[in-house]
Amino acid sequence: MEETTITIEEAARLSRTGYETFKKRLQRSRILLFADPEHKQRKRVRLCDLDMAAQQAYHKEQAAKAAAALEAPPDRMKQPIYQGRKSQSSNLKSQTAIVRTQQPMLQFQPQIPTQEAIDQAVAAVPASRRKYVERWCEVVGMCVNGTFAKYKSALVGGRTVETKTDFMKWLADQNNVSLRDIHRKLHLYNSIKKQGGDEKKIFRAFVQEVLPKPKAGRQSVFQKPGNEWMWLGLRNLYVNQARYSVARAHKLLLEEIDEKQRAHKLGHLYEDRPTLRQCRIALANLPMPEEILGRLGEKAYNDKCAPYISRDPNSLRSNDVWVTDQKQIDVRLRGAGEQLGRIWMVSFLDARSWKVMGYWFGPILSSDMVISAAAVAISRHGVPKSVLMDLGKEFQATAFNGSFRKIKGETLLREAQGVCQRLRIEAISAIGRNPQTKPIERWHDVVSEFDKRVPGWCGRNTDERPEVLAEFERQHQEWKSTGRGQSPLWTIQQYLFEFIRWIENEWNAQHRGRGKYLGGMTPNECWNTHLPAGGARRITDAELELAAAEHRVLKVARGGQVNITIHGQTVEYQAPELFLRQGQELEVILSRRSLRSITVLDKADDGRFLCDAKAKPLFHWGQRQPEDREELRQAIRIRNAAKKAIGLGNAARRVLEVTATPAEMGPQEQPIREISSTEFKSRKMRVARAPKTMTAGDLGREVFEGGTL
Fold first, then answer.
1. What is the structure's pLDDT at 329?
2. What is the percent of the chain with per-residue pLDDT over 90, rounded to a whole number?
């Protein structure tokens, strides 16, 4: 007789066990698996290798399917309109044949006649011990209700059942017990049965005898009859705003016990007094939310225990919730001038599919990085419904989340709004000091694993810093000073290229695990599968640029120009329409993509378009003028570095002038302190007031305006 086999997934479902747990259980038991002829990578397990509960569940399902097929009405669409006696009989025969082909071959029906009595007896048992009692009730029930006759002469579990002992041995193997234990339980059942009563009464008494008894000395003092109030008293003393320690709560409980004994005038009333260790063990089982709510208050409970994002995957769709946070890359990279440093990353992650939606890198963390990363993600995947963001000032700034702006005086609503308000995105602030509420923290751990593969990995802290990093930095400095060989460290461009390739080709496009969120799909597949019926909400690039732009209210300066300060640098914009509005306040829209022009709106006329003002080329930044904020920031850093170098050169020149002419000055004129070049020249030329020398700032400004050094 061919043995019945089922897939491992179906066997795990019938056994009410997780897939991975059931698979490990099969490996530990060394149960033989069979290949599925329909799927080469899928394995099947024999039905006889499962426990009795799983086998019964399987046969119940098969019997229900067969009964449903027998009771199913015939398909009226396939019947002829006129049916005589002959046609009806032929149709009935054909339907019976179809049912017989659909019904599986059942070896036996191991239905326990005493199942109702067992269910009632087991229902009264605590849930923690119900599984143990239910197993013995089923084993004894199958031994006494004649199920052996259905297994007789059948090949079960690799042996042929000929006698009742063979059947009991098979039961022992299936339930991982010994044959001797089965005989003991049968003897106990028979002794209870001799006392008389129906099956329900017999199994209730059997269950009470089978329940594990507490060992001597192991029963807690709080579980003994008459001591239940001690646990309530200990819990009330520990879980309150006084925040007593366990030792203090134990001491107060002992004082309360002594007071009760004195009130009853019986010294033997409470002989069992709980020890400090017993109190610690009992309080260790307190649920964490209950302890935090009682001891720390409602705010701490909301911060540490209240769920912020539903962990049920069925309650979320793609683009429902994005999670964003910043992270400093754990790699030392080569930047401009071959200087070593670390860069920052801001990323957006979809909470439903774990797909990386967008990212942006920069040397300094700012709100511009957050808006740039959000613009990349929105332009590629649409507008999300909500964003769970960090509590950092870069995310809570007005530019991204305008609701946290402190409005002073008369302020336009457009000025107080951020990107989230303009695009109708719900901004959710994460819970402070609780990383478990931000799923993106797990993504940052994955990024740290990627950084370990890059030369120059410095670890997340000083304890993780590898020893090879010092050798890499020494080789880099040697290559930088001598020019021989090459540097072992990566440039920023090399890291960004490999990082983007890894995200798009590995993380978003490859399978990982069988978790409840992905279900065996890649992040790309999961995101496409769980999109809403209407798809993601899309906007044009022009709408996105307008939403990400910065709104300011400025006063028109003399000459009909608007002065805007960006990163400490003033950029002037002019237009003919602004000459007649000098001294008036106007609303300005500054794009984040380009600094060439701005859009000017009439504040008094409810934001009516007035004109487009263009930037004045007042400063010459070398060969080209900065086009956006990032280039402006780089140009400012280069200019400051050049000014610093020129200042050091002026200081060195003054030292050379002092040391080159010591004899021309008298002894009384020898400098005894450090003086400026202007004072030195005035003494040398014997004049009261010397012409003003050029400072480092003046020289730097002259160099940049001239365009050459």
1. 93
2. 19
Over residues 525-531, the mean pLDDT reads: 90
Question: Can you tell me which residue has the tokens 């801001």?
Answer: 346
| CB-CB contact of 252 with 235 (8 Å) | no
Provide the b/e sequence for 225-252 (b: ≥16 CB within 10 Å).
Answer: eebeebbebbbebbbeeeeeebeebbeb
Of 333, 376, 347, which Cα lies nearest the Cα of 443? 347
Q: Give me the sheet containing 356-362, strands edge to edge.
A: 356-362, 344-350, 321-328, 386-389, 426-429
Look at the block and give the residue holding tokens 């990323």. 347
DSSP 491: B
| Cβ atoms 212, 129 nearer than 8 A | yes
Domains parsed from the chain with CATH numbers: 5-102 (no CATH), 115-210 (no CATH), 221-304 (no CATH), 315-529 (3.30.420.10), 549-615 (2.30.30.130), 629-706 (no CATH)
Of 58, 80, 71, nearest to 4 (Cα)? 58
199: part of which helix (H) or strand (E)? helix 199-210
Task: Map tokens 């402070």 to a residue.
Answer: 432
Q: Which residues contact 593 (CB under 8 A, 6 or more apart)?
A: 545, 628
Among candidates 623, 585, 619, which has minimal Cα distance to 604?
585
Q: Is 264 left (phi over 0), alpha (psi -120 to 50) or beta?
A: alpha
| Model pLDDT, residue 272 | 78
pLDDT surpasses 50 at 696: yes
* Least confident piece of the model among 293-297, 379-383, 610-614, 638-642: 638-642
The candidate with the shortest Cα–Cα distance to 530, out of 321, 308, 310, 307, is 321
For the purposes of burial, counting CB atoms within 10 Å of the CB of 461, is it exposed (0-12), middle (13-18) or buried (19 or more)? exposed
Residue 395, exposed/middle/buried by CB under 10 A (0-12, 13-18, 19+)? buried
Cα distance between the two ends of the chain: 96
Closest residue by Cα to residue 138 from 207, 195, 201, 198: 207
The CA radius of gyration of the chain, in Å to the nearest whole number, is: 41
**DSSP characters over 131-160:** HHHHHHHHHHHHHHTTTHHHHTT-EETTEE
pTM of the shown model: 0.53
- Please, are residues 340 and 329 in contact by the beta-carbon 8 Å criterion? no
Q: Of 106-110, 284-288, 309-313, 469-473, where does mean pLDDT reach its minimum?
A: 106-110
Handedness of CA 632, 358, 370, 537 (dihedral sign): positive
pLDDT in tens, 576-619: 889 888 889 898 988 887 888 899 998 877 778 889 999 887 55
